Predict the structure.
Amino acid sequence: MIGLRFSELFAPTLREKPADAEIKSHEYLVRGAFIRKVTAGVFNYLPLGKRVLDKIWGIVEEEMDAIGAQEMLMPIIQPAELWKITGRWDDYGPTMMKFKDRHGRDFTLGPTHEEVVTFLMKNEINSYKQLPVTVYQIANKYRDELRPRFGLLRAREFVMKDAYSFHSNWESLDEVYQKMRRAYENIMKRIGLKYLVIEASSGAIGGNESHEFVSLAPIGESNVLYCEKCGYQASDEKTPYAGKYEEQNEKELPLEKVDTPNVKTVEQVAEFLSVPKEKIVKSLIYIGREGTIMALIRGDLDLNEEKLKEALNDQSLRMATPEEVEKEIGVPIGFVGPVGINENVKIIADESVRYVKNAVVGGMEKDKHYKNANLGRDFRVDEWADLRLVREGDPCPICGAPLKGTKGIELGHIFKLGTKYSEAMKAMYMDENGEMKPFIMGCYGWGVSRTMSAVVEQYHDDKGIIWPLSIAPFEVIVTIVNMNKKEQKELGEKIYKEMKDNGIEVLVDDRMVTPGMKFNDADLIGIPIRITVGKTASDGKVEIKKRYSKEKELVEADRIMEAVKRAMESYNPPVVL
């Protein structure tokens, strides 16, 4: 569809901000009639939204096809048996949408498709001569988010491109991984996004190497750390702590249990006992496959849960609820500590804990804390790891310069899976020596629907969206100011036809509404080029204006096509960051 009349378009725009809209993209996509909420985290895509989604979809599809990936389609409904083989039925956690069929068998609505595609290839590929192969799909995915928010950015149903590659050697995987990286950068550039490519944690997907493609945005939930000196870039979940801790040469003092009535948090303990946060050791309780875990870290630092999961090789790990803490430890939350803890509870500690002398820890009794607790004498540690969440200002792990921080929206993520899934599922091929080997795999995800929100976060003003030409629902809008004026109506219709005849995606606003409503809707919806057919129509002239510019150009109507082409060639909206 190249042309459409606004009078026939289903686009119920709204004047007021939706009550649940916390960010601009959510507000403008709802107000501009791109999406409508069905329930928390689930949306209808109205005609304008579907047009934008299709544009993004098309760019992603073209870049996948360009590197030789082959499109297919896999089922949304996946049997639990496949996920149980890899251990991810439990590892993936509560975000999986699980259900039983009428026979009581367990299924999930697919959040991703590693198990399904590995099962497919296991049964279809048996020789190294059939490798490598890369397949992809663009389809709906499902994750039961605890708190869906930010519109399309954290939804429970979303459109995603997921690709999977299968190889007989690591060099082949490296080659496809780099091709996919370049394809993802092409997607970002073609859409017009400001972005970073960062080292990332592999999480529940697994593998030994992964990179995120992050669209910069102040509201983003991805915390990015980067080094201006050497160029290092990584998520805060991935960044190792490269600093050194100072030895404390204090004399060990006698262990002392003190009253701390209703004093639970680090801040409260520090104030009540008049000690710096650095002298407190936090004790955090987690539940995992191997039972109850206590994680220790210095009181002024934050624990990185992704590092903890990786250190324990347990993606099912989660923080215990207050009720579970009381049941497992027998002590209210806020007063738990490592002194006297049951031997069955594994203790893992951040390196910072090694250097705290005469520490304050939970007293293992309500309203009590210990002072002067010391490692070895008073409490044990079973395993050491870097569990510290690195912050802006901490040293770069490559060159030591202070790290800078920014925020972004994760749109793409690529992984070197290795043989994690093929070994678990016994997906094998015969190599050139006649030996059976597990496939070496990669996987590559792109959030198609969330890209729409990421674009709006970078391209908007106080009037509405400013779409890049690459994914705009229409390239041009012809606004006929007064449909009761014959010369305006006729000229507007003529220009509308000319745009269509020249392959321009055009919307003509032929509604019988006020000029103000037409201009407001054009700005809100964010169509890149506006042609206004108004009072100057009787002189054979119209106005042309770029959505992001205040400048209007008066041009002869019979030369409008030249003006539109110039405007499109020079169209370059500013990024809001």
Summary: The chain has a mean pLDDT of 95. Residues 170-191 form the longest helix (22 residues).
